[in-house]
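[step 3/7] fold_predict: job queued, chain A
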Amino acid sequence: MSTITIFHNPACGTSRNTLAMIRNSGEEPHVVEYLKTPPDRETLQRLIADTGMATRDLMRRKGTPYDELGLDDPKWTDEQLVDFMLQHPILINRPIVVTPLGTRLCRPSEVVLTILPNPQRGAFTKEDGEQVVDAQGQRVEPR
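[step 4/7] structure written:
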């Protein structure tokens, strides 16, 4: 059983890149397609707490009912925002990765490199052509 879990949306390039970097470290994570299998309240609240982010900061706006529901309004409590995320899982930003070294929203995808227990095993280039890791498994700094 893997010690890494990714809350993943296969339609999202950032999520696909993050999953590929996890696999490039030699791990096969537990993949949760959260739009098909949303987390329960306890899991979602734990993920929010473990990222250290504010609830609203872990919400996705683009391509979601965020604006339509008026979720920018400060009247909404964290509990109410979690309710909206449970009702509309598309509001949960992605990918969220949990490893023994921490829990992070991996946007951009290379954030995952900070919490992977194993180094990259070789070069990695993102879908858009940006090289992230060189042939020796070392992080390539963006230009």
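[step 5/7] annotate
The beta strands are 5-8, 30-33, 96-99, 102-105, 124-125, 131-133.
The helical segments are 13-24, 41-51, 78-87.
exit 0
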